[in-house]
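Blinded run. Sample ID left blank on purpose so nobody reads anything into the name before looking at the predicted structure. Input follows.
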Amino acid sequence: MAVPHLARCLLLSGILGSLAGSASALVPYALNRTTGIRAAHVWLLWLLPPVL
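Blinded prediction complete.
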């Protein structure tokens, strides 16, 4: 009875670890991409709402 429970826990932890790793790898990619777009199109800054 303990083996199926252990297998299920290992499977779920593997899936969650893969999702968390993918999300943490996506953040620097998105940051680099948006920085490149902002550098190429400076006029986009004027579309941002002013902060009071």
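Unblinding after everyone has recorded impressions. The mean pLDDT is 92.
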